[in-house]
Amino acid sequence: MADRVERLTNLLALLLETTEPLSLVEIAGALDGQYPATDVARRQAFERDKQALRELGVPIDTEILAGGPYAGQTRYRIDRDKYELTDLDLEPDEMHALQVAVAAVRTGSGTGRSAIWKLGGALDDEQPPVSAHVPDRPELPVIRAAVASRSTIAFGYRGSERHLDPWGLLLRGGFWYVAGFDRDRGEERTFRVDRFDGGASSIVVGPPGEFERPADFDPRSAFPADPKQIGQSPDEAIEATVRIDAGRAAAAVRELGDDRVLHRHDDGSIDVRVPADNIDAFRSWVLGLLEHAVVVDPPELRASIVAWLTAVAAAGSETGR
Amino acid sequence: MSPNRLRTAEERLQRLLVMLPWLMEVGEAPLAEVARRFDMTEADVEKNLELVAMCGLPPFVDEMIDVFVDEGIVYVGVPRLFTRPLRLTSPEAFALLAAGRAAMELPGADRGGPLGRGLVRLEAALDQVGLETSDVTAGVVFDLDRPPLSDDLVELTAQGAEATISYYSPDRDELTTRIIVPRHVFVDGGRWYVVADDARSGARRTFRIDRIEQLSPTGRRVPIEEYVAAPTGFFVDADVPRAVLRLAPAAQWIAEEYPVDSVRPLDDPAGWVEVRLPVTSERWLSRLLIRLGPAAVPVEPSTATDEAASLARRMLAGYD
User: Fold this and answer.
1) Residue A72 Cα, gap to closest chain B Cα (Å)
2) Shortest CA distance to B303 belongs to which of B276, B285, B280, B278?
3) Out of B18, B114, B213, whose CB is closest to A93?
4) Are B136 and B175 contained in the same domain?
């Protein structure tokens, strides 16, 4: 039997060239001897080929004859206008810029590269001095299409079924988030895309036009800039005063910004104001600074850090050092 | 990097469907160039082209795709079929949009330049697969906020310029002065890094840019011989000692934040797991245990609990 690539190529060529939709019997006749002779095996082989071509993005149209001696028979063809890439008329510098972009944004999949090849470009000469690692998730095109068509999506999230009007996607801190209106909770919510249960194929996309998206919605605004602020509304904001020693003061100012500095001491240490609404994020941050940082205020927060450290110290077998 | 072998019939056909329109456009091309451009071995290019040259349907048996290889050159006769590439799939269109929008957030991006214009022209292809781009963010936002020194480092990388840095290492809690030649700047997991030739170790090292306290060019330029790309993954040397920790659900974010060898669920209704992970220094492990508190119980090394306790006592001294 012929190499499968040969059969697939011939099938693709036949369906592109034909002016009339063809039945499987006609296809097998044209591809003489390339499909198995028995009906069942032939149908199985053809279904597998059709699926392979569709997965490559080939639009195969089917029609089922309504009347006549072959009523109920399925026929196939490929509409060349739908198959071929629309010419984008990219200028050479625009093509080059897209190549650089795809070379610089590493996703770990070959999807961007195959897109560049289709546009007639290549990546083999691109050597950008700066790059970004951006995780590729199969859910993203599905969610992005739902954003475009204003379709509510249903998905499993940590074991429960959620319904979301997706407004936009955000990459932050190496993770993809979808922000939108959570129909179950009746409020704006953000979900981490890699925590969806069951992958892209288990996202159920509803009919188009189910919601209005706020004009010029920016997912950044739906998401607190500082993880230490997650989980609270602004009017109940808690702030801590933290003293940072001279060794780490400059780095802390770079991280937090000048406007967070309350006081600069003569020994080079500084007092800074830090959001502490999310106690877990705050504690992890301040403890990560080790002996370079001490919580000054508020007293109950200071006491909770002392209690935490005392518990860790008590777990050891040594006594003092 | 040697090309990946194309394993399945689907992969081979997919590559052919981008290679053939390009060959028909150029008419002829050296086999070596075709192989390099399409990331295949020369033998694979030749084998696949010979195969499609044999494809055919009546009345064009054997001459449907007129392509042959002779003396290391690929020739295309009369282009008939596959003169135009297949349309973009939805994932491909998304990948282009995402790469373009992410690249806009990288140092040196010129928003009004060719990339911005190119993305506008992409709209037609995006519309074809239902990814409209009518709003300013195109529904996809990249937050690649970077430390201020990143832009300087990109500039130095492009010039092959040497610089002195002072670098903070939390593992050893020390500030060192080093002479480096920056070779590549990249962002991964929201953090910015520079790959640089480090004079102190005589090796190529990756530095976190937010830990560079000072940067000043020495004025020396170094000839750039080969291109340095970002590391493909954060692999950790096999010689680095390992720790085994039991983690409550509240502490399991560390399996996403740091490279781990294994995560093993424990037979425990509260959802504790046991992870094995490389540890670059005792201090690093102590710092991690202090941050995790009661949500982590070290199993190995046996000294881990005492080391963390000792560091916690030093920290408590600040509260006296």
Assistant:
1) 27
2) B285
3) B114
4) no
Examine the domain organization and report whether B52 and B102 are in the same domain.
no
Contact A111 B91 (CB under 8 A): yes
Instruction: Give the domain range for residue B201.
Output: 149-221
Q: Could you tell me which chain B residue has the CA closest to the CA of A81?
A: B87
Residue type, B178: R
Residue A173 in any domain: the answer is yes
Number of H helices, E strands in chain B: 9, 13
CA dihedral B276, B278, B281, B284 (to 10 degrees): -60
Q: What are the phi and psi torsion angles at A161 (to 5°)? A: -80, 130
> Domain range spanning residue A215?
139-221
Same domain, B165 and B202: yes
A227 part of a folded domain: no
Partner B contacted by A159 (CB < 8 A)? no
pLDDT in tens, B169-191: 877 778 889 999 999 999 988 88
pLDDT in tens, B195-231: 999 888 888 888 999 889 899 999 999 888 788 888 7
> Domain end: B23, B46, B76, which one?
B76
Would the CB atoms of A115 and B92 count as touching at under 8 Å? yes
Least confident of A106-115, A296-305, B151-160, B252-261: B252-261
Kindly report, residue by residue over A79-102, the tens digit of the pLDDT: 998 899 888 888 999 999 999 999
What are the φ and ψ backbone dihedral angles of B29, each rounded to 5 degrees?
-160, 145
Q: Which of A175, A198, A221 is the last residue of a domain?
A: A221
